[in-house]
């Protein structure tokens, strides 16, 4: 497993991490096997959110109840969670009161004294940057949160926060898979008239994050679209799966490792946030941590996924 020091922190992190959005119905034993398999593969970083699960903090609680880590075991892992979404509504809330209350709830549910990284989950149109800054200062001063970041944020939204927030924003978690790649695809087809791919939906988010040492974390790395099912093995993507299967045989890894490597191969040094609850898939994806796809292979997958290389 490839690891690196997450810029803006003192944390050594793997480039493949486990998201636990889907563990709510898993038994203690299933969660322990899933997490144990991840850790055996070098995945020591777990991505949570207050809203994962049918009850607020549900998945965080399920995770902690199953793992029951000692304090020394807790120190060996990185726990990241998110705040800012209010599920009833739904709406977004970056107020001081909501952010602090959410973190208190996450600490209780996770059974820990600190969150390693807190992400603002989805942009709040009514954000008051000074209020976010005050919440971050209070959470940092109390030792409740060590590092901060964002998710699904544009460069402008990050700039607005950065004018008030003292702490570095170390991560931006964004949807990215080879079939859902507006983040990278627009730049490849810049300046093309009458091509949908040329429309900028992210206003240069990837380049901005690279310029500012903000680590991109790719969520839904195997979903074809927005929770539409995975492209791996899907009859909707015969050409892509043929390329993936050929590369999997060539590198002697499972197909899921090649899909992972399409993201880890990118020089932005992204982290892939897995969401599978199947231990074998976690172990297989981890093998994609440092598969050295060539430029030709990377672009072949991109074209086979339906993107244009002008
Ligand atoms: N920041 C955000 O806004 C945001 C949004 C969504 C998610 N996330 C984070 O990203 C993580 C990953 O999201 P995701 O779960 O949508 O991503 P994913 O890893 O692309 O999808 C995993 C889902 O696909 C299923 N699946 C079916 N066939 C599969 C195959 N061959 N290989 C792998 N998975 C297969 C899995 O089922 P099994 O479990 O049965 O294997 C699981 O339900 C979440 O856990 C969460 O931490 C963040």
Automatic annotation (TrEMBL):
<dbReference type="GO" id="GO:0005829">
    <property type="term" value="C:cytosol"/>
</dbReference>
<protein>
    <submittedName>
        <fullName>Aldo/keto reductase</fullName>
    </submittedName>
</protein>
<dbReference type="InterPro" id="IPR023210">
    <property type="entry name" value="NADP_OxRdtase_dom"/>
</dbReference>
<dbReference type="Pfam" id="PF00248">
    <property type="entry name" value="Aldo_ket_red"/>
</dbReference>
<dbReference type="InterPro" id="IPR036812">
    <property type="entry name" value="NAD(P)_OxRdtase_dom_sf"/>
</dbReference>
<feature type="domain" description="NADP-dependent oxidoreductase">
    <location>
        <begin position="16"/>
        <end position="298"/>
    </location>
</feature>
<dbReference type="InterPro" id="IPR050523">
    <property type="entry name" value="AKR_Detox_Biosynth"/>
</dbReference>
